[in-house]
Structures are given as C-alpha cells and as structure tokens.
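pasting for the record
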Amino acid sequence: MVEAARTTSAQGARWSRRRLRRLVVVTVVLTGLGALLTPSLGSTENSLSGVREPSPQATPAVPAAVRSPPIIGTNDAAGWGSKAARTILRAHITWNRVELGSRYNTLASSLSDGFKVLAIVGNVDDDTPLYTVAPGAWAAGVVAELRTNTGIAIAEAANESYLKGGVADPVQYGRMYLAAIEAMRFAGIHVPLLFDMTGDIPLGSWADAGGWSQDAGGGGWLRDAVNGVPGLAGAILANGVSVHPYGAVGENDRDDSGIAAVAADEAVADAALGAVPPFYVTEIGFDLGDCGAALGACSEGEQASKLRAAYNALLADPHVAGIWWYQSHDDGTGRWGYMNSDGTTRPAFTTLSAIAASVGR
C-alpha cells in the first residue's frame, strides 16, 4: 500500500521538531555560548522506579569490530508493495530500517520482502521527557520487543533520544541504555544495540537553551552521559552508535548537523570512551522540498549529486559501518524519496544502486 497520507505519522512529528531545533540552534549560536552541563556523578539508582542500575562490570569494555564491507541500506523500504521492494533489492540495497509498532513499514513485511533489518526498539514518544521513564521498566520493554520480534539484525535504542520532550537528558538516556544492555545480556540476546549520539546540547530546552554543554568544552551529549553513568562507555564500545548527520559535505554544526559532524563525533568518542566504536549513519538524505537548504536539493539531479558526495565522504571513513538513506519514497516528512509513487526511480536511486553494488553488503 502506498502511504500517501502519512502526514500525521510519528516520523512527520520528528521532522517538524528537527527543523524547529535547527532554527533554534542557529539563533542561539549567534547569541554566544553558555556554561557546561554539570555531569551527575551520584548514585545510579533510579529515583522514579527504585531500580538499581547495572554494575560497571556488567559490560566488557571491548570495542566491537567495524563491519566490512559497510551496509548500504534505506529507511521505509517496506509497505509500498512487493514490486517496489523487488526494485530496491535488485539494486543491492538490502537493509531496511523500521520502527517496531509502525503501521506500514513493518518488521514482518521487511523480512517477507527479503530485507535484513535494523529496528528501532523502545522508542519513547517524542513529547515524553526521559526523566519520566524508569530505566528498569524501559529495559524490560526492550527485551520483550526483541524476544517477540525475531529476525532483527541490529537494534537502535530509541530514535533521536536527545530530542525527547524537547530537553536533552544524556544521563537518563545513559541509564536507560545500560539497563537495556544488562537486561539483554541476562536474557541471552546478542543483537547489537546502538546508542543515539549527538554533539552539543542545551542546558535548558531546545527551544530555550539558556546556555550549552559543548564537546569542545569537555561536555556534550556523550561525555555528560558517560560521566554520569559508570559502565556506560564499555557498553557503547561493544555495540556502536547511531548518528543522523543531515547537512552539507564539509559542514559541522555543533557536532550534530553536516557530514563533517561524523568525524567530530568520532573524535569525541575516542576521547570519552577510549576508542572509536562502529558508527552507523541510520538517517541521511536530501529533501527535494527544501531547495537551497544544506539538507535540501533543488532538483532530482542535485539530490543525486549530493548523495554521491555525502556517501563518498562517509565511505572514506573506516569507522562508518553502515549508511541508511532517508528515505525510499516521498511522504508526509518531505520529498526525500529516490522512487516515485508509481514505482519509477529518480537519479538518486541509480546513484545509490551503483554505490551499493560496488561497496555494500
């Protein structure tokens, strides 16, 4: 079924919020930089649930090997019909990213079509602040999802967790993530679980920062999480991170937006974790509906050209283990697609197919 009316989807809500955040970030950058976020070094007991978090010894601090050759995947490959799925698979784009619980782009349809799957697990509603989430209960939910939904090759611990509730809460996300790693270990589940990563974060809300915790000042999302949660560094190294570096080649906006933000994030990871874990670019794309923007394209030809340049840069990075294009078709989130609703393809599809055939798995 072609999802022409996905305008009220969770993805659409995420994208509206992402665009708002980028506008806010640009505005605040011009007003100056603030103090660093003070990391929480206290007890790892969750005051909401009374659950004691996993001990630092629960996860070995051993870096996972970067997969080679890299994954060349896509978001939203399933749910558009078997013909579209076959077209994508014949182009050597063999991985699909899904959010468990989605109505159309489902795990079942992805596996039935023949895709390997990266699945978002334990996704928290975009309007829910993480401080309201009990890590132990959340971890149990992740385990339940992975037990029920077999066939997942890689899991991602929620989506863009630094935006939840409009507030970045790295320590709470770190507690949630480490609780899930320990719960998965206890349950005998060995699927890699990716840690959401970004760079500089506001001390207040994304809409009203009131200062920043910055990578360059010894803070930022990853350092604040690792400093506040003993044992977290080893867990991230053993699994990997997820990044969404929308923007131009050579751009690095707050170690978050732009292709160059990936290398910046890797440098932060090396300093904070002691090594660089595998990096998975689980979303990257250029929106035909946003002409002139760094994450936009003014024509289908420009979209394909930007795709090629971005992938050339990312694939030259030995720490990048996979890239998932956002996304297969246009929908309520924008005109990101490499395919039209009638199943015909755009130049971006030809470019991505050539890349996948030459380097992907």
